[in-house]
Amino acid sequence: MKILKLVSVFLTSAFLLSSCGNNGNSKSAKQGALSGNAAERVYVAPGEHDEFYAFISGGFSGQLAVYGLPSGRLFKVIPVFSQDPEKAWGYNEETKPMLNTSHGFIPWDDSHHPDISQTAGELDGRFVFINGNNTPRIAKIDLTTFETTEIIEVPNSAGNHSSSFVTENTEYVVAGTRFSVPVPQVDMAIKEYKGKFKGALSFISVDPEDGGMDLKFQILMPGFNYDLSHPGRGKSHGWFFFTTYNTEEANTLLEVNASQNDKDFIAAINWKKIEEYVNNGGGKKMPANYAHNVYDDRTHSATSTMKKEVLVVDPSDVPGAIYFLPTPKSPHGCDVDPTGEYIIGSGKLAAEITAHSFTKMLDAIENKKFDGEAYGIPILKYEDVLAGSVKSGGLGPLHTEFDDKGNGYTTFFISSEVVKWKVGTWEVIDRKPCYYSVGHLMIPGGNSRKPFGKYVVAMNKITKDRYLPTGPEVTQSAQLYDISGEKMELLLDFPTIGEPHYAAGIPADKIKEKSRKIFRLDENEHPYAAKSEAETKVVRKGNEVHIYMTMIRSHFSPDNIEGVKVGDKVFFHVTNLEQDYDVPHGVAMIGAQTSELLIMPGQTETFVWEPKLEGVWPFYCTDFCSALHQEMQGYVRVSPANSNIDLSWSLDDE
Amino acid sequence: MKKIMLSVLTLSLTFMISCGDKSNKENPEVKQEVIEEVADADPMKNKGIGPITSVTLADEIDMDLAKTGEEVYVKMCSACHKPEKRFVGPAPKGIMERRSPEWIMNMILNPDEMVQKDPIAKALLAEYLSPMANQNLTEEQARAVLEYFRTLK
User: Most buried residue, A193, A322, A401, A435, by most Cβ within 10 Å?
Assistant: First the structure.
């Protein structure tokens, strides 16, 4: 209760402060944080490229946005968990299976924590993984096409939040449940939560060759909330660390009832040990039902497979693999420094940041310095594992990233600032305000063995007056700071899509040369592709009509089609014959109850049109493709259901 | 101070632009005039702009190569070019009498620059309106298409 009061006092004063700034001398207040040449340092001249890519989660948009740093320019919104009519994601026949789950087709999710694949603890730029929080899923985005190519549903989970973080060689992408649930699901009284609900931590293996994901095992932990996680690295490679809250196991009014314990835990998991146990036949196979969706760049199509079994591990069956590290005040962020020695827990209701020592943890385990246990899992003594704490004077620490000079940078939500501190001595070096209420922050490579400590991006929860107002809903906001010097310098505000949670950044030269320019026609294995105009045709199968259509600047082939009837289900399978960079074509049909298609060179996509009215109905190209784009159109004649007009199709009457 | 900054910016922009031009090594305006003169004189002497500077044709048509070229043509070109009839673009029939082999291959391999700078290509774009698409053929594929064109008399 005290804490709540304190929090509200701080919040009030924070708002007061900010409104003072607005009403008072706002110009000087806003420029006070800016150095004179900030504009120059974020200016990327026309035609020049940014130094870094930033992949910023879209939060409740369900997508992943690609920005350049330092300019803050938006390049692409990659559709992941939500339908996107612009790109026909989840609308065309090819990508609908990507959004399949055990609950059926789900058109939306809440995307949170992107993480770039690593080799030897360094960013390798092959893939970005991101979690869907609501209907638990992990997606993989291929960084040659910047498209989502795989989504795996996570069974026995709910609120898939301590996800999707990769181990040092991308052996696993890890997903932890925020909400504990009955495992397996069962109709039971909610009040019986305590001791009966479980928290599943899922280890999804990633094939080193093709990146294919497979749910290798789940650890069924006590029914706490598993909030965030990060892998060990370097000396702590082989371990994974998860923050927990609600160790009270409350099932109602958590804002009070889950804030009772002075300390919750960081769960330290020796996944190598559990992997070995599983590889030797350990664990139990339990029935499950979860979707595994894979997109293929050659067929330009996705398949969805329902998996029926999952391997679960009871912690008590693998003694010595899991320990609890007491950590104050419902810790949120869980971050590991580049050396792998320090595990940072940010008690979100605390003033201090807690740093645990991996070396001291191993020593405490070896000497069995336990302070009781929880559900058979040993609790280490807080004092025995504590390396130190950062006494910043801020309030509400959330997340930490690292630079390459031995510094940590932690966001403070309640006091709305980024605090820079020295790893090892825990002294505060600098602090800069955020506008307003910062959540995550990101330094490219800032949670790997090799950070690129030039910039930090702060992702804020509240925008208020930072941009021109747009009614009650305003854009979300990120802020860029230069961290190359001793003191941080605020350089830039830029708007973001959805709500940015975490982000992942990487030097542009690690991926830009590998970015695909076209899909090759001679590699197109789509079953309905027409790879030249000679292959175009229209085929009737009962009331299904399949149009094998091509597009090139600037016509469709065929562009006159007759013999379609009311009640038919017409499939437009459209192949873009272009083989040049940046020449997509679009196609849309009047009255089709779906989105347009936006088809890249060499690609085939399909939409379905079910004509309900007789007549002659046009379709056209939706992407301005050449000077004759306005001429890129065609007609379909729709006749009565009982008509006997034969199917025919033509281009230029041939 | 602002003005000085602006002029520095202008200066550096100018500098960047001239750097860009220098990387082309030649002044494009001068080059264009030369080409136009050549084109006016004899289109068969215009080799176009692009990677192909010299093509040697054997006396006999290589029919295997021409067959390969026809396959490439059907896949990559036929959406816009019919062999003997004006379509989206011109018909290739008889092209060997109208254009140099180098020009033909450069038009296939480097159409974006050709329609901007080459006088014949510019005139064709003005007539046909639809720009020649770059279908990303390899030089070998373009050479095969050229051999196929030799069969279209």
Answer: A401
